Amino acid sequence: MTIEVKVHKGNVMRYMYVPLVAIFGFLSACDAGKPKDIVLNNSCSLDSPVAEAKVPTNAPLQFWGWAYNVAAGTVPKDVSIELISSNGEVAITAPLTRSSRPDVAKAFAKPELESAGFNGAVDIKALSSGVYTVKIIQQEGKDRLSCASPTKLNVQAIKG
Questions:
Q1: What does DSSP say about strands 54-56 and 97-99: parallel, antiparallel, or unpaired?
Q2: What is the count of structural domains for the chain?
Q3: Residue 114 CB neighbour total at 10 angstroms
Q4: Has this prediction a pTM greater than 0.90?
């Protein structure tokens, strides 16, 4: 049995248009629920450890600083730290704790920033020796606020 299909050139485009629009609409909707990354490099400071610090891996690394959502003027509850290796891969992501920073509120003349501080100890035993970039990440709703610190850490892996 042979099936003969006749296609008119004008109809091919019309019939292809509808599925293509549907596919692109579906693909764009796939990102609708994902967090949006927003870079806010003027909204944070890593006060400790200091830039170019030589950091041994045999003890937890203490982080201390401040961060807020400069665009909205808010202090997101969730804050974490990311250490990025020299090849651009996220080596560690760890949650931090919010803390009081009256000095930040005073410096910006914004009392609402008193809770913009953060601190925490991060286990870095699994890191290899090398230079790592630090990012402070804040989560506010669907927005993931990323602030790259100019601080680079020189990690010295110590085994045992």
A1: unpaired
A2: 1
A3: 16
A4: no
